[in-house]
Design a protein that fits this description.
It is a single chain. By secondary structure, the protein is α+β, with helices and mostly antiparallel strands. The strands form two sheets. Strands 3-2-5-6-7 form a five-stranded antiparallel beta sheet, with no helix packed on it. The chain has a two-stranded antiparallel ribbon with strand order 1-4. A hairpin with a 6-residue loop joins strand 6 and strand 7. It has two helices and seven strands. The longest helix is centred in the C-terminal third of the chain and has 10 residues.
C-alpha cells in the first residue's frame, strides 16, 4: 500500500467514534455499502495520520484508491483518507476499527457491512 502512518497532528492518542464516507462500493470490502453513505466507526491510535506526497495522492485519487474518507478527521490524514486500496483493489489498509462496530451491543453495526462484503466476495 502506498503512504505511511505518522503521529496524529494533535500528538495525542485518539479514541472515539468518527464519521466516514464510503468512497467506493465496488470493492471486495465495500460491496455491502452504497457510495456516498456516511458510517460511524471507532478509531484508537496515536500514529493514525495517513501521509502521502501530493503527487502520489493525486495518483491514488485518480485510480480510485481511496475506499473510505474521514468526515470528522481525528488525526490530520492527508486528503482525509481513512481507508486505502492497493492498485489491484484486493488489499485494504484501514485506520478505523470495523470490528469494534459489528454488533449493536458495541454501539453500532456499521462495521458489519465490511465483513459481510468480504464474505460475499470469497
Amino acid at each position: 500500500l502506498p503512504g505511511a502512518m505518522l503521529q496524529n497532528h494533535t500528538q495525542t492518542f485518539v479514541c472515539r467514534v468518527v464519521r466516514l464516507e464510503v468512497c467506493r462500493a465496488d470493492t471486495p470490502f465495500t460491496r455491502k455499502f452504497e457510495a456516498g453513505r456516511q458510517i460511524r466507526l471507532p478509531v484508537a491510535h496515536h500514529e493514525g495520520r495517513y501521509h502521502l506526497d501530493p503527487e502520489d495522492l493525486e495518483t491514488l485519487e485518480a485510480r480510485g484508491g481511496v475506499a473510505f474518507r474521514y468526515i470528522d478527521d481525528p488525526n490530520g490524514s492527508v486528503g482525509r483518507v481513512a481507508g486505502v486500496l492497493n492498485a489491484e483493489g484486493n488489499v485494504l489498509g484501514l485506520m478505523p476499527h470495523p470490528e469494534r462496530a459489528a454488533e449493536a451491543v458495541l454501539g453500532g453495526e456499521d462495521g458489519l457491512a465490511l465483513f459481510r462484503s468480504v464474505v460475499e466476495a470469497t
